[in-house]
Design brief:
The chain is built from ten helices and five strands, in the order H-H-H-H-H-H-H-H-E-H-E-E-H-E-E. By secondary structure, the chain is an alpha+beta fold. Strands 1-2-3-5-4 form a five-stranded mixed beta sheet, with helices on one face. Helix 3 runs antiparallel to helix 4, helix 4 runs antiparallel to helix 5 and helix 6 packs antiparallel against helix 7. The longest helix is centred in the middle third of the chain and has 84 residues.
Length: 375
């Protein structure tokens, strides 16, 4: 159905061009005030026929090229000094269709025939005949240039659409792959981790109920099971975040801080400035930065406290996460996948990220994200 609609629109456009060119040729011919003789009527007919023939240019470009060339030579021989506009349109259509050799041959033949036709119309001065033949194509060249420019614009537009289609296809494939990975993680890990967590919880509960001392290793397994469950859930949410569900953003940062408190970390959240309409991409990036930072603090930093500060500025949004862990400038940790992911997110939005140990001990993550570029 789409292809048929396109063909109908193209056919209508061809007829509009053909009628417009025929009308322009006839108006130009009538402005010369020829006497109503049989030769003049033939000239008017050739002017109209040359223009209307363009309606078939898409289906039979070579035939239209020949017809418009003969019409141009014919009305020149009939004494009409009218630009060969229709022939130039036909040349463009034939070249666009790929008939290069035939187009060049017919064009050379028409160029050679136009001076002869001008002489046949009654001009006895050869120079004047060549000048008239040359003038028949000068205006037409301008029209042809315009047509070529429009064709180039259409080609560029189609190229942009093709590029956009490729990007959408690549994005769709990436989304499908991300969802596939999320399903695999869910199917392969969620059950096993849940079993470990439940078994550890039961073992701790039974030991305490009996009044026995719970082994440190068992408590560590219990804590690791809880943490692994939380991190797996966050990972699955990130993988399934395809921009169609409500995105995680600034409004969900307090949940991250509260989750950090639930595992024993003294975490605080401070938001300064007036919160305006923050772009979704910026809000999501801030959420991921805070999430990854607090996860690293709970897993690796051996910290007691952590602070999250968000500064809402008129043209940017800054976020800073500090902890009092064991990191020092002399023992800088090796950047992991999480830190690289944060840097990629910030860089994609045109922002800046700084992640390094603090001089007084602990680690700091600072990011500044512009709002204008992400809007």
């Amino acid at each position: 159905m789409g292809k048929g609609r396109f063909e109908v629109r193209a056919g209508v456009r061809d007829w509009v061009i053909a009628v417009g060119v025929a009308a322009a040729l006839l108006v130009t011919g009538l402005s010369e005030q020829h006497s109503a003789t049989g030769l003049a009527l033939l000239g008017y007919a050739l002017l109209a026929a040359g223009g209307l023939a363009l309606a078939a240019g898409r289906r039979a470009p070579v035939a239209v090229l020949v017809v418009t060339g003969l019409c141009a030579v014919g009305y020149q021989a009939a004494g009409f000094d009218v630009a060969a506009v229709a022939f130039l349109f036909a040349v463009y259509a034939a070249m666009r269709a790929g008939h290069r050799i035939i187009t060049v041959a017919v064009s050379v033949a028409v160029l050679a025939a136009l001076p002869v036709a001008a002489l046949a119309s009654g001009l006895h001065d050869t120079a004047e005949a060549f000048a008239q033949a040359r003038g028949a194509l000068e205006i037409a060249w301008l029209i042809a240039a315009g047509a070529a420019g429009e064709a180039l614009r259409q080609a560029e537009r189609r190229a942009d659409e093709a590029e956009r289609t490729r990007e959408e296809t690549a994005r769709r494939r990436a989304d499908n792959e991300r969802l596939r990975i999320a399903r695999e993680l869910h199917d392969s890990l969620t059950h096993q981790i849940s079993v470990i967590k439940v078994q550890a919880e039961v073992a701790v509960h039974v030991a305490r109920k009996r009044g026995e001392q719970v082994p440190e290793a068992l408590l560590a397994i219990q804590q690791a099971g809880r943490e692994a469950t939380r991190e797996l859930r966050a990972t699955l949410e990130a993988l399934r975040d395809d921009d169609t569900a409500p995105p995680r953003g600034l409004d969900h940062v307090p949940e991250l801080v509260e989750g950090a408190r639930s595992i024993g970390l003294d975490a605080t959240l401070t938001i300064d400035g007036q919160r305006q309409d923050v772009p979704v991409t910026v809000g999501r990036t801030v959420y991921r930065i805070v999430q990854e930072s607090l996860t690293n603090v709970s897993r690796h930093a051996h910290a007691r406290t952590a602070s999250v500060r968000i500064d809402c500025r008129p043209d940017s949004l800054a976020v800073r996460i500090d902890d009092d862990g064991k990191a020092t400038p002399d023992t800088a940790p090796v950047p992991g996948v999480g830190l690289l992911g944060m840097r990629e997110r910030v860089t994609a939005l045109g922002g800046r990220l700084r992640a390094e140990p603090r001089s007084e001990g602990g680690f700091t993550v600072q990011a500044e994200l512009p709002l204008e570029r992400a809007s």
